[in-house]
Amino acid sequence: MNQLNIYSIAITLFSFCLQGCNAQPSTQSKTLPLISTIALPAVSGRIDHLAFDPVSQRIFVAALGNNSIEVVDLKNNKSIHSFQNLSEPQGIVFIQESNTIFVTNGGNGVCDVFNANTFQKITAIQLPGDADNVRYDSINKKVYVGYGNGGIAIIDANTFKQVADIKLQGHPESFQLDIAAKKIYVNVPDKQQVEIIDWDKQIVIDRWKLTAAKSNFPMALDAANHRLFIGCRHPAKLLVLDAETGKLITAIDTDSDVDDIFYNPNNGSTYLSCGGGYIDIFKQETANRYTLIEKIPSRSRARTSLFIPQSNRLIVASPKSFSSGAALLVYGIKN
Fold it and tell me: pTM for the complete prediction?
């Protein structure tokens, strides 16, 4: 075989691999059809979490590898603004009452607060380091931020001053606020466990060791049925725990590199966005029984997402690759 033929075969194989890494479904899903793709032309590198403003229909994207926050108009399917010069933005929430965007930075531990209309910085809160996942309690007007080697900072959403600090045994990844049960559930993958915080006492009251799988990063909560969904990467599994006792209900195989999980109480579905290039959908038959109903090809490394219940949308963030630019993949949810 001459050198030219070898070169041609190599190019063909390389192109085939690229197509596989960014596989799009050949037929539309009946459960979760792809309805639009919104380009993020100025974004490169890893994309982390997203937030949504339901009034203006804007999505805010933490473009960690780009050190920016991207603002996307969901009504017109286009990128409209970019905040530059952040330090590895990871977590992000939109606070409707004050019309502000709260951003956590992994690079320097700073929590930045921006005006959502002018995009001007209002203030910044310094944490010890690696400010990561963030949650907003709209009832009590508190912002919760996981950070550093083991802590949850509580910040007043009116004054943007830190008012409390909860110590953990390791760096917190995803966590969920259970307002009815007055608990906070926190993934601590360094210790292969979930730590449970008493809402009022603001201390850890229990720790649940995970034995079925480890690298527990994403988490979702079904508060009505007291079920906690834990996404693990080694091996790739969805763990369902009893949120009252920590008992393992079931462990189900998933696709690889999951980074976000959302539970939809309207149809009993759980959505997992997996960096391996798929969205896994599990159906809750009963509180103790879950069935994989579909795995939808997305794109390689498209592992962060946002469920928007107001409009029945699942937004999946796809970083730039050899064959395609960064984009938001917008899926419509069929009940």
Answer: 0.92
